[in-house]
Amino acid sequence: MNAIDPAVSVDKLTKSYGSFTALTGVTFDIERGETFALLGPNGAGKSTTIEILEGYRDRSGGEARVLGSDPQRGGLAWKARIGIVLQSSGESGNVTVREQLTQFAGYYPNPRSVDEVIAAVGLEDKANTRLKSLSGGQRRRVDVALGVIGRPELLFLDEPTTGFDPEARRHFWELIRSLKREGTTILLTTHYLDEAAQLSDRAAVIAAGTLVAIGPIDTLGSDEARTPIVRWLENGIAREQRASDPGRVVAELVGRLGEPAGLEIVRPSLEDIYLGLVGAYEADLASRASHTPRPPSASSTPSASSTKDQVSA
Amino acid sequence: MTAALQAPATRASSFGIGRTLRLGAARIGYETKVYFRQSDTLFFTFLFPVIMLTIFSVAFQGMGNIGANPDGSGGISQAAGYLPGMIAAGILLSGVQNLGTDIAMERSDGTLKRLGGTPLPVLSYFFGKMGQVLATSLLQLALLLLVAHFAFGVDLPTEPAKWMTFAWVYLLGIATSAVLGIAISRLPRSGKSATAVIIPPILILQFISGVYLQFALLPDWLQSVASIFPLKWMAQGMRSVFLPESFAAVEPGGVWNLAGAAIALLIWLVGGLVICRLTFRWIRKDS
């Protein structure tokens, strides 16, 4: 039955801090072996969600199951099956990379080899360097190494690549793909949408404590938000048109204008779609809170952005 | 990394007491190594009693012996007079100050949060801390005795009974100090304020408990206040080991009162254990 149960199951999860509500009924499942990205602006509730699932915070309401257990009551055997990469930490770091990994490997029943993990995060040259002498990005790689040393079935990554240079990020993506090939289930929060697009099978977007979209990356957002945009110059004026059949639009333009100047067809990027989702939700909240209709020019929703030069490629 | 990942069967037996002890032993080595790599704890905790013993012994040498006859003969040297107090202070510093600030820092810098997400038992973590305290405090003690004996010519006791007293006062004292260190680490709200919150009360305790000032010279009410706390009893126990019998006359009631020391330290030890058990959390839960 382990194979059928989802790795993570969250139902109407809520979390309040005093009068402030951080999560208002979030529901999603993560299948075994799946890589799932949690996207959202700062303060939207990503870290609150992930920390509830890691067992660090107690939920205020709703249900949560992680690897078949209630994370609030996860014992040592349960902890041995998960790996956690927290957001940045500032430990004093008077041990070397190898000493730290060797120490942590000892906590797990079936750890990975320390040298393999050091190589996987690309710190072979720094294996005998004390943590405090590492750069921020290198320390982050140690965090990732500590998260995977115990050979977790489920890996939590909370903004794992903050402070990485582009090369380190590519390297990290390779590592995540290799973990995925081994069957590791991964829950990832990130600010980098290209990272979510590269790594995740599905993503959920959280805004103001509410799940506003969920699904495979290439299906997020409304159809309208995904509609390609054709841009061209006509008599020196920039024009654009949203069209689900951009080829036909272009053919029509060519028939009318000959070779159109400045022609481009743009598919809204994940970032456009994401900003549209979050913007629409927050605008909706704000208008409901103030009871005054917002002027259309202030809205950044995709539906409104078909009015000229709002969408950036 | 190529082997397919199997869901490991969770063997409940592999998370038993044997594992807790084995990981505790591994933590002791790790903790002790880290301790000696921190230059600030090395100075303020490890070397502090030796440095203070040296300063006091040298500074007050000109005042002659303690308890000397009017003609200057007899009595004991300043170094011999300060040694028991410095030993007691070392025990307190190695336990309370060291662990109190150390764990408060670890709570605020994310070390405890990280450990709390691993299958490390809390008890193994405690064993690691207490083992580190014992190991570093034994070294500190050895250094203190060597410096007192060879640099300042202090005669160490030769009777086995004295060393037996020394052993139990030391072990009870260090266990109490370590437990109180873990308990007190809960007080500072941040790592930055840890030393500011923990060091001053410990410094005051040292002044009123007969470490820097002769206990017998303090007013009665201050002696009574100090008697509430464990340091006074550790210092008194150590005086009974290292000072001549005649010095018992100036103690409260004119006796060393070792039974009182044992009872006071045991009460603090048990109280500390209860506080640790009730209050220790890997992180401050917010709910």
TrEMBL record, chain A:
Record has Cytoplasm as a keyword: no
Residue ranges annotated for the ABC transporter domain, each copy included: 8-233
Xref: SMART domains: AAA (SM00382)
Domain of life: Bacteria
Pfam families, per database record: ABC_tran (PF00005)
Classification via PROSITE patterns: ABC_TRANSPORTER_1 (PS00211), ABC_TRANSPORTER_2 (PS50893)
Gene3D superfamilies (alphabetical): P-loop containing nucleotide triphosphate hydrolases
Any one GO CC term of the record: plasma membrane
Record's compositionally biased regions (Low complexity): 286-307
Protein name: ABC transporter ATP-binding protein
Organism of origin: Subtercola vilae
Native organism taxonomy: Bacteria, Bacillati, Actinomycetota, Actinomycetes, Micrococcales
UniProtKB/TrEMBL annotation, chain B:
Coiled-coil intervals: none
Protein localization: Cell membrane; Membrane
Transmembrane segment boundaries: 42-60, 80-99, 133-154, 166-184, 196-215, 255-280
Keyword Transmembrane helix annotated: yes
Name the UniProt record assigns to this protein: Transport permease protein
UniProt-recorded Gene Ontology molecular function terms: ABC-type transporter activity
Upper taxonomic lineage: Bacteria, Bacillati, Actinomycetota, Actinomycetes, Micrococcales
Gene Ontology biological process terms from the UniProt entry: response to antibiotic
Main localization, broad class: membrane
Family per similarity comment: Belongs to the ABC-2 integral membrane protein family.
